[in-house]
């Protein structure tokens, strides 16, 4: 079969579309024939050797896959050939077929789009965990979302609205701000003079919850825009700059800086993760959340698509298809 193979850590251009051994359904594993493969920002970091973990070389990247079960191992209990599932893993999904442990495969509701299923796993899963478990956001609070036209940003807007928040979306261009508005943001802003504009938008009160996957100068503006008792969620650093935080701001403004490492959460709290995914699927079925799929591209184009994601050139979810 064909897969995207990383033979050496380095530039994204060096990943290969190449032959890879067929997976087997051993023990409690199932083999999934991919209908959709999700592309995520950490995938681009992983192939460059810049992520928190480094798989043994060579390896196949990719965290998300959705498709049909075509083989089951002898220890599989609840899934069968023909079931449609979505799966999360640390890597291995950029392939025509992939073997995953049964507990990692989530059965999909009838008719659910495979691309939407991929988006709900990492992108929406991260935003949901951030707002529900880490921020404990409450109805009526003000949520500020940076990177509001990206996958996690759109997810944070929709989830924030589902949880009763007033949402301020921040994006770099008018086109991206329109995407944030269509996702449900009550107010949309650019990054220019962000501190002053947030002060105006909140009537001087400040932001209750800030969702920051960007870092850099935008984090600095947010840290000076937090309300009393606020929670500033550190999601990632898409700007490429990890900011230095003056801790006296947290002291005098009475807010918390809260780290959000969704990957570790899924491993350390699998039961809560499963409950979160069940809630997201129910919200999806009820129309409260709806992933924006920017486009679906051939698996062979993975390098080009990953470079767009790393360069912050994507709006919504990008999907690869064998």
TrEMBL record:
Gene3D superfamilies the UniProt entry points to: Medium-chain alcohol dehydrogenases, catalytic domain, NAD(P)-binding Rossmann-like Domain
A GO molecular-function descriptor: oxidoreductase activity
Pfam families membership: ADH_N (PF08240), ADH_zinc_N (PF00107)
Entry-linked InterPro entries: ADH-like_C (IPR013149), ADH-like_N (IPR013154), ER (IPR020843), GroES-like_sf (IPR011032), NAD(P)-bd_dom_sf (IPR036291), Zn-ADH-like_protein (IPR051397)
Domain Enoyl reductase (ER) stretches: 10-320
Name listed for the protein in its UniProt record: NADPH:quinone oxidoreductase family protein
Organism of derivation: Mesorhizobium zhangyense
Taxonomic path: Bacteria, Pseudomonadati, Pseudomonadota, Alphaproteobacteria, Hyphomicrobiales
């Amino acid at each position: 079969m064909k897969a995207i193979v990383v033979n050496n850590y380095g530039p994204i251009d060096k990943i290969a579309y190449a032959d890879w051994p067929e997976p087997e359904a051993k023990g409690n594993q199932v083999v999934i024939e991919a209908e959709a493969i999700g592309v995520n920002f950490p995938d681009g970091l992983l192939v460059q050797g810049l992520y928190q973990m480094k798989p043994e070389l060579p390896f196949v990247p990719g965290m998300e896959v959705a498709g049909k079960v075509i083989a089951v191992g002898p220890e599989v209990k609840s899934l069968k050939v023909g079931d449609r599932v979505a799966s999360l893993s640390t890597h291995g999904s950029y392939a025509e077929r992939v073997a995953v442990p049964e507990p990692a495969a989530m059965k999909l509701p009838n008719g659910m789009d495979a691309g939407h299923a991929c988006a709900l796993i990492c992108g929406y899963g991260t935003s949901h965990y951030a707002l529900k478990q880490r921020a404990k956001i409450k109805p009526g609070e003000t949520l500020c979302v940076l990177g509001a036209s990206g996958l996690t940003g759109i997810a944070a807007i929709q989830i924030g609205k589902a949880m009763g928040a007033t949402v301020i979306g921040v994006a770099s261009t008018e086109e991206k701000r329109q995407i944030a508005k269509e996702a449900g943001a009550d107010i949309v802003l650019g990054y220019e003079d962000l501190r002053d504009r947030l002060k105006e938008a909140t009537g001087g009160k400040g932001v209750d919850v800030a969702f920051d996957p960007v870092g850099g100068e935008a984090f600095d503006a947010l840290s000076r825009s937090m309300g009393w008792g606020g929670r500033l969620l550190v999601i990632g650093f898409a700007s490429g700059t990890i900011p230095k935080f003056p801790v006296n701001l947290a002291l005098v403004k009475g807010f918390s800086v809260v780290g959000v490492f969704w990957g570790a959460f899924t491993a350390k709290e699998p039961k809560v993760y499963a409950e979160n995914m069940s809630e997201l699927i129910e919200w999806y079925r009820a129309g409260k959340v709806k992933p924006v799929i920017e486009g679906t591209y051939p698996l062979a184009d993975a390098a080009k698509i990953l470079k767009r994601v790393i360069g912050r050139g994507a709006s919504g979810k990008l999907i690869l298809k064998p």
